[in-house]
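Something for you to look into today, if you have time. I want to see for myself how the chain folds. Leave the record below and I will have a look.
***
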Amino acid sequence: MFSSDMPSVVNQLPLSIDFPKEQPKFLETLTLLYKRIADAVNTKEGGLFTLQEYFDSQQYFTPGIPNKFRNVYRKVFDMVNLNGGNIAPGSTISVAHDINGILIPTHIYGSATNSDSPAKFLPLPYVSATLITDQIQIYLTPTNVVLINGSTQTTLTQAYVVAEYLKN
């Protein structure tokens, strides 16, 4: 059974702790505190966004075994660099992601800068509220990361795609 007390579900450390004066109880309390600190640090999401695959400390449940967790990995793609330069309107950029054993993407997102004056900083994927051909699509296949720049979107001068995924 799960508790409705959500703070007890996350890793939290006590704000204060009283250490006993007796040596055996002091060591027991210190050991428990260390384990709590290690657990809290080791399961917090990492903020490192690298062009290499990285274990970001996120964990997902396992279907049928909700208390068994699977590691989430992250990889960032500099799509402009991988394209060899700016991404023109109407272009489809598809490059090998070199991720071995990708099982399930958990989050695909990013950002782009276009060549408008002044430039627009866009979330990826980008959905235009006024023009369907102004959108920017991103997705993964089992082998590639793909970015499609809409035919009326201006040239992209920067485009980072972040893929977070489970591996088998």
Q: What stands out?
A: The longest strand covers residues 65-78. The radius of gyration is 22 Å.
